[in-house]
Amino acid sequence: MASITLNALAHTYTDNPTKPEDYAIREMSHVWEQGGAFALLGPSGCGKSTLLNIISGLLEPSHGEVLFDGKRVNELKPEERNIAQVFQFPVVYDTMTVFDNLAFPLRNIGVPEYKVKSKVYEVAEILELSDQLKRKAKGLSADQKQKVSMGRGLVRDDVSAILFDEPLTVIDPQLKWKLRRKLKQIHEQFNITMVYVTHDQLEASTFADKIAVMYNGKIVQFGTPRELFEKPAHTFVGYFIGSPGMNFFEAELKAKDDQKEALMFGEHEIATSDAMLARLKAMGASKVTLGIRPEFVHVWDGKNNDAFSVEVDYVEDLGTYKILSFLFHGQIMKARLSEDQKVPSGQIYVSFPEQWTKVYVDDYLVDVDDQANTVDKNKETDHAN
Ligand SMILES: Nc1ncnc2c1ncn2[C@@H]1O[C@H](COP(=O)(O)OP(=O)(O)OP(=O)(O)O)[C@@H](O)[C@H]1O
């Protein structure tokens, strides 16, 4: 077991990078603490596999260091790093039995046969493979093969960490949930540092205690599923997490009639704390993006002059709740209605509670409650800049 530290890490696949976009991993520093269950979540092409391969040693980073328990491992080969990696597609030896496949990583490092046997039985039991041990891997279904692949990652007690790269892609949807729970259970039992790569928010939040959201080669937020939902640190997190994602609209910091500055959407003032106004002024920001999750949009039953008057576009019934789409100054926005809430039509009134209306400048959250956690854009650097 180990903590994994990424220190000013960056990676490019091009020989002569000239701009930030040339980097699959833009300069980042990050720590995966020892024993944690983490997810690395992001869309296709954001750099997840590149990052995992750098940690496991399959890929040498262009810049920066990887440290296990504070010791630099850049120069160590993958087999010297004691990392188990489970890939998207099963890696099994077809001609070997399931037992021999599971035993392989242990026999490779000279573990005595009696220990091999007990460990293989233990892991096979957890993964419900006990009755398959004598079968040749060739005859197994894709699901079962991937379970064997996972088992090979889990047999060694001495690994520093286990990295899972979208391990459930080939698994039948009904089995996915079960295996995710199983992995969580295994984590609780063995207390190994686990990093689970996925583009699926549900997979990430059922497995991990903390999720790193990756976008364009950067980790834009590292937090609990709840933090990602309630306080997205970047507009991408707001958009990517949640179903549907956050609503966004643009507002301006400008003088009102009485000359005091306020955050304005057209002629409408957006309720904003003095601390936020002062912060925006200090940052020299005039245009901001406001974000509010559909769950927090308040839909009024009757007329309310303090709220925005909007037009209902359509209502989608999703069984236990409904999603209301409405036209807000030419753009479609969404609100989540609870099961017992009256379904509105025509002209309605909505408001955006200040507590849940997040302010973003250049896509990053401006957080006046917790300045220490606010991403400071000025501290970000890109190698190609
Ligand atoms: N061997 C390679 N040579 C050149 N470019 C690569 C190579 N591997 C990945 N890339 C590029 O690096 C970027 C990050 O890719 P990476 O595979 O790490 O993303 P990912 O988030 O794992 O995506 P996916 O979920 O589709 O696997 C992409 O733009 C990809 O095209």
Automatic annotation (TrEMBL):
Keyword Nucleotide-binding on entry: yes
GO MF, one example: ATP binding
Domain ABC transporter, residue spans: 4-241
PROSITE patterns in the cross-refs: ABC_TRANSPORTER_2
Keywords, in A-Z order: ATP-binding, Cell membrane, Membrane, Nucleotide-binding, Transport
GO cellular component, as recorded: ATP-binding cassette (ABC) transporter complex, substrate-binding subunit-containing
Pfam families: ABC_tran (PF00005), OB_MalK (PF17912)
Protein name: Carbohydrate ABC transporter ATP-binding protein, CUT1 family
Upper taxonomic lineage: Bacteria, Pseudomonadati, Pseudomonadota, Gammaproteobacteria, Oceanospirillales
